[in-house]
Amino acid sequence: MTGAFYDGLAGSYDLLFPDWDASMARQASQLSKFIPPGARVLDCACGIGTQAIGLAQRGYSVVGTDLSLKATSRAVVEASARGVSLPAFAADMRALPFADDSFDVVLAADNALPHLLTADDVLAALREMRRVLRPGGRLILSTRDYDAIRRERPQSRPLSTPPSVGPGRVVWFQLWHWDGDQYELEMFQLHEAESWRVVVGKTRYWAITRHEITELAERAGFGYVEWLLHAYYQPLMLAPNG
Predict the structure, then answer these.
(1) Higher per-residue pLDDT: 150 or 76
(2) What mean pLDDT is predicted for residues 196-211?
(3) Helix (H, G, I), strand (E, B) or coil at 16
(4) What is the distance between the alpha carbons of residues 202 and 60, in angstroms, rounded to a whole number?
(5) What local confidence, expressed as pLDDT, does residue 164 receive?
């Protein structure tokens, strides 16, 4: 379900941003504060390259993986068009195809981890991220602020996000259908042509809290877990390997 959702978004995901290149540069600037110079970085939820390309443009050696083959294929093309190298291919973060101790930093940004719907799956992913990190390396991940969302979510109706208009007059909005501490997300794209064309994709998330992620990261063997609430556009978790 998740891979198919992002396959469907791969051709238009950049249109979520008023200026995708500016967003790449801004996010890379924020993330680079927590990534040592010269670090080898794995972005294990790279999508079409929003974080990975920006980091590559700042001189980091970045490898990208994602469940969506269409997204990673586009990431490679978009990176090349901007003069940087980004090896990227499809892989599941619960079974990363790399040797132990391969990276200085593992990144899982933009609410990727909550696509895993059970504690066992999240723990498996965190253990894999730690396995491919070198001793002293760092895990960086971001999620939506589910602590606040779970306090405020509607109990009997879907949550609707405000419509936004991207380049090419593509209108986006989401409906969230809650089921306990999980929700099904419907992503609506309205493309203006001679008549409006509507594209709908569905995926599912676990609204996992920061405390729940912290406990699982510690079980996976990470050291002191730190959450920064204002360093990035989503709450940002930093966890050292060892």
Answers:
(1) 76
(2) 92
(3) helix
(4) 33
(5) 84
Percent of the chain past pLDDT 90, that is, above it, reads 82
Model confidence over 59-70: pLDDT tens digits?
999 999 999 999
Choose the CATH number for 2-145+208-240 among 3.40.50.150, 3.90.79.10, 2.60.40.10, 1.10.1060.10: 3.40.50.150
Residue whose pair of structure tokens reads 């204002």 in the numeric block: 230
Burial (CB count within 10 angstroms: exposed 0-12, middle 13-18, buried 19+), residue 58: middle
How far does Cα 117 stand from its chain's mean position? 15
Strand segments, DSSP code E, in the chain are 40-43, 61-66, 88-90, 103-108, 133-142, 159-160, 164-166, 170-179, 182-191, 197-206, 226-228, 236-240
Backbone angles phi, psi at 56, to 5 degrees: -60, -35
What number of other Cβ atoms are within 10 A of residue 112's Cβ? 24
